[in-house]
Write a structure and sequence with these properties.
Blueprint: H1 2-37, H2 50-65, H3 82-85, H4 89-95, H5 97-105, H6 114-126, H7 128-138, E1 147-151, E2 157-161, H8 167-170, H9 176-180, E3 181-182, E4 185-188, E5 210-212, H10 220-226, E6 235-236, E7 239-240, H11 244-249, H12 252-255, H13 260-264, H14 278-284, E8 285-291, E9 301-310, E10 324-333, E11 344-348, E12 350-355, E13 358-364, E14 372-380, E15 385-395, H15 398-408, H16 416-429, E16 434-442
Parallel strand pairs: 4-5
Antiparallel strand pairs: 1-2, 3-4, 6-7, 8-9, 9-14, 10-11, 10-15, 12-13, 15-16
Helix pairs in contact: 4-5, 6-7, 6-16, 15-16
The structure holds heme C (HEC) (5 copies).
Length: about 450
Amino acid sequence: MLEEKARALNSYLRKRLVVIAIFLATVLILFAAVRYFAPWLMPGFRPSSKATTVDQGLQEFLESHWQKPIPFQGQAPAKFSALEASLGPEACGTCHKQQYADWKESLHSRAMGPGPWGQIVDMFSNRPDEAVQCMTCHAPLSEQLPVLAKVAANSDTTYEANPHLDKELQLKGITCAACHVRQHQRFGPPKADGPNATKYPPEMPNHGGAKRTPYFERAEFCKDCHQFDPENSLLVNGKPLQDTYREWQNSMWAKDGAACQDCHMSNRRHLWKGIHDKEWVKDGVQFKAQLQEPKPGAGKTVTVTAEVVNSAVGHKFPTYTTPKVFVRAALLDGRGKPMPRTQQEHVIGWDARFEDGEWKEFFDTRIAPGKTFMEKFQWKLAQNAAKVRVWIEVHPDHFYHVHFYPAHLKRADLSAEGRKLVERALDESGKTPYILYDEVLPLNTSDRRQK
Ligand code: HEC
Ligand code: HEC
Ligand code: HEC
Ligand code: HEC
Ligand code: HEC
C-alpha cells in the first residue's frame, strides 16, 4: 500500500520535473535566441554600445597594424623632407625629444642586444625561419630583416637576401616606427589635453600630421609581443611561456580599466620600466617581516613570517619564467655579522625549463594580482644570536644567466661573432640583481640587552 503510494508520488514528481525542465529549457533557448538575434531586447543593452563597436574596430586595427613582419614602408611622399622620410629613431628624436630620450633608456631600444642578437645571428645559416620568428618581436620592421621568406607554388619556403635591408636600423630593436609608422603615415593616440600636452612650434614640418586612434591606449596594443597564443604555442603545465596579457585580463586592473599603458607609460612617457628597475618594482610590491614571538629565550625556536603582497603589479609578480625573486633570512650576531649556516630562502618565480628533451615545470610560486605570498623561517635560537635579517633579492635575468647562456655557450656550432655576443650577454645578465627590501629585526632575548 505504502509502496504503491510512494510509486504514484514518484511518477507524479517525475512528470512535474519533466514539465519544469521543458519550461526551463524553453526559457533558456528563448534567452539565447534574443541575445543572438535581437540584442536590443536584452536588459542593459545600450544602443551603439561602445564595447561591441569598438572591439570590432580594434580587431581590424590590430590585424592591419601588427602584421608579422611589418610590411615595407615603401617610398616616402615626395613632399617629405629627408628628416620626415627617415625611419631612424634619431630622426624622430630631433622633433620628439622626450620620447627619444625615454626610449633610448628603455629595454625596447635594446631588444637586439647581445643576448637576442647573439643567438639570432647564428640561426640565419641553419634555421632562418626561427630567426625571422624571433625578429617579429625583437626587430619587427621588414627593413630590419636580413632575409625574406619566399613561398614557392608547392608551399616550400626558401629564404633570400633582403634587398631593402637597412643596416642602420637592423640592431635598433623596437623602433618608434615599429609602433607608429605604416606606409610612412604616422599613427598615434588621441591628442592629449591639459598642461602636459605636447606642443610643437607652428612652423615645424609634421610629416602630414598623424592618424589618431584610441587603440594606442588599449592593452591589446601590447599583446602581440607580450602574450603567446594559448591555442597555438607550447604549453608548460597548461600555461603559455608568456601569458602577461591574460594574467592582466583576469586581474582587477583590467576590470577597473587600467591598461598596460596606464602603468608602464603614465603621462605618455616611453620608459617601459619593469623587473629591472628597483624603485619601480617597490611601488608594485609590499613586504612585511614579523617575529612570531617577540621574546624567544635561548634554546627556543624563533619563527619569522615574511609576507610579500602583489599590491600594484598588473599581472603576476613576476610575469615571466626568466626572473627569480629570493626571499632570504639569516641570524646575525651581536655585531651584526651573519651567523654561519643560518641562511634560509624561499623563491618566488616560475621555474620552467627545457631539460632532457622536454619542457618541465619545477615550481610556480608567482603572486597573482592582489594576492599574498607568505612563508616562515625557523631556527633553534643559539646563545649569541641577536638579530634576524630578512631581505628580498631580485635577479631579473636569472634564467638566462644561470641556465640558458652557459648551456648555449657549450654548443659546438656557434660562430665567433655569436659566441662573443653571448659571452657578453652572460656577463651583463650577471650584473642586474638588486636588493629590493632589507630588514633587521632585533631579538629581544630575555638574557641580553639589545643594542
Ligand atoms: C621634422 C619634425 C618631425 C619629425 C622628424 C618627426 N615628427 Fe612626428 N610630429 C611632428 C609634429 C610637428 C607633429 C604634430 C602633428 C599634428 O599636430 O598633427 C608630430 C606628430 C607625431 C605623432 C602624433 C602624436 C602627437 O604628439 O601629436 C606621432 C605619433 C609622431 N609624430 C611620431 C613620429 C615618429 C615615429 C617619427 C619618426 C619616424 C616622427 N614623428 C618624426 C614633427 C616631427
Ligand atoms: C614589437 C613587439 C613589442 C611590442 C609591440 C611591445 N613590446 Fe614590450 N618588449 C618587447 C621585447 C622583445 C622586450 C624585451 C627587450 C629586451 O630586453 O631584449 C620588451 C620589454 C618590455 C618591458 C621591460 C621588461 C623588463 O624586463 O624590465 C616592458 C615593461 C614592456 N616591454 C612593456 C610593453 C608595453 C606596455 C607595451 C605596449 C604599449 C609593449 N611593451 C609593446 C616587445 C614588444
Ligand atoms: C612573441 C614575442 C617574442 C618572440 C617571438 C621572441 N621573443 Fe625574446 N623576448 C620577448 C619579450 C617580451 C622579452 C622580455 C621578457 C623576458 O625577459 O623574458 C624577451 C626577452 C628575450 C631575451 C632576454 C632579454 C635580453 O635582451 O637579453 C632574449 C635573449 C630573447 N628574448 C631571445 C629571443 C630569441 C632568440 C627568440 C627566437 C627564438 C625570441 N626571443 C623570440 C618577446 C619575444
Ligand atoms: C612599443 C611601442 C612604442 C614605441 C617603440 C614608441 N612608442 Fe610612442 N607611443 C606608444 C603608445 C602606446 C603611445 C600612447 C600612450 C598613451 O596614450 O598612454 C605613444 C605616444 C607617443 C606620442 C604622443 C605623445 C603625447 O604626448 O601625446 C609621440 C609623439 C610618440 N609616441 C613618439 C614616439 C617616438 C618618437 C618614439 C621613438 C623614440 C616612440 N614613440 C616609440 C607606443 C610606442
Ligand atoms: C597596475 C600597474 C600595471 C599594469 C596594469 C601592468 N603592469 Fe606590467 N609591471 C608592473 C610592475 C609594478 C612591474 C614590476 C614587477 C614585475 O616585474 O612583475 C611590471 C613588470 C612588467 C614586465 C617585466 C617582466 C617581468 O618578468 O615581470 C613586463 C614585460 C610588463 N610588466 C608588461 C606588461 C603588459 C604587457 C601589461 C598589459 C597587458 C602590463 N604590464 C600591465 C605594473 C603593471
